Amino acid sequence: MTFLHTASLALLLFYIGGAAHAEIVVKDDTGATLRLPAPARRIVSLAPHATEILFAAGAGGHLVGAVEYSDYPEAAKRVPRVGGYSNPDLESIVARKPDLVLVWQSGNADGLVKRLHALGLSVYQTQPDRLEDIPANIEKLGRLAGSEAAAQRAAADFRQRLATLRKQYSTRPPVRVFYQAWHQPLLSVGGDQIISNVIRLCGGENIFAGLAAKAPNVSVEAVIAADPEAIVASGMGRDTPVGLDDWRAWKQMKAVARGNLFHVSADLMQRPTPRLLDGAEQLCRHLETARGRR
């Protein structure tokens, strides 16, 4: 074989190998396999937490559409809207010509993934139910968007902070906790919800961990009967959440008798993003306060 033929063959193999290597293959949070021929450059996010995770992965600049309440970081507010997470506008999504759509498995409408696939769109479903799922999502979105280096740094930072909190609090004496996600109807979190994961991280015990629903309706009577040592509520903004002070009427509960009514912002506790560790730090301090009041 001549040198020219050898060089041509080597070049051909390089391009073939490069093309094969260029395909990106990941499994999303449902176990579905997603294949992209190249890194996504036009991404639509149909969940506020997915928007935030994409920015954390260093790929926020590739967002061409996002749903309402995608408000962190500041740059996310400037991304064009494509409806809300419960009622996204398919026409607007298609008009953005995305090569990747991020979907919230439990938050978006039933059947949405099938409709997006029918339109020929590539879909990644996100459903972080454990704290460890957050850095995994950061890394996977970094791979899909071609920002792996930034994503790996962000994921490593998250894991380091998580390990520090776990070492500091997870073996502390347990505190029985009622987490109030909303006041009317009265909503809490079940054992498979990521907030329950945060409560365990802090050495707490979710009084409704035995419930299968992620956001179960509960009754005032059930909370009183469980007699939590701490009540933690989330609400919009920095003000005390509506309904938290109402518990003061039930003076027989340990949480009320000891003054253990606490607040953590919903943005820090109810979005499975890197900021959830900010909420975890606050929750852990609150539970440590409760321990000190025994």
Q: Sketch the major β-sheet.
A: 4 strands, parallel
Which residue ranges are poorly predicted, with pLDDT under 50 across at least 5 consecutive positions?
10-20
C-alpha geometry: elongated
**Beta-strand residue fraction:** 5-15%
Number of strands: 10
Any idea how many domains? 2
CATH architecture of the largest domain: 3-Layer(aba) Sandwich
Query: So, the CATH homologous superfamily of the largest domain?
Result: Nitrogenase molybdenum iron protein domain
Overall pLDDT level: 92
CATH topology (fold) name of the largest domain: Rossmann fold
Category by helix and strand content = alpha/beta
User: How many helices in DSSP terms?
Assistant: 11
Which radius of gyration do the C-alpha atoms yield? 23 Å
Share of helix, binned: 25-40%
- What is the chain-wise order of helices and strands? HEEEHEHEHEHHEHEHEHEHH
* Lateral arrangement of strands in the main beta sheet: 4-3-5-6
CATH class of the largest domain: Alpha Beta
